[in-house]
Amino acid sequence: MTIQEKKQVLAQYQTTKREIIRLTKERDDWNDLAYRISANYSDTVVSGGCKVDKIQTSIEQMDRITQLICDRIEQLVLLKQQIEEAIQGIDDQVLRLLLEYRYINGFTWERVAEEINYDYRHTIRLHRKALEAIECHFVPVIQLQ
To answer: Disulfide check for 111: which of 26, 107, 135, 138 has CB 3.0–4.6 Å away?
Structure first.
């Protein structure tokens, strides 16, 4: 596995977390829409001759999105386990910390450098060394839509 491929696999954890947050917000938006229907409005709208039940549509969307969120959380757990196992295979503690801070905690490079007590440029050099040291045998667990 190339260094670029390793970075992509490791970055999937934070990408999946962001996807869960996005889906959660989308589900909340549907929930808000369902509760905006007041006594002044009918819960059924006639549009182009078709009746559309706004509450039912919102509930169906929330259910669909909730299932996606659950699927993504399962994928996130598996991915985190794989990443942690791969990181634990590195002998150097500083390199392990660097990878954990960056790919599990989602820290910026500046924050990673601060946490491991190295300057920014040296941290970037250590990152390459860490990627070379990591043995990735990941099973693909996510397919973002």
So the answer is: 107
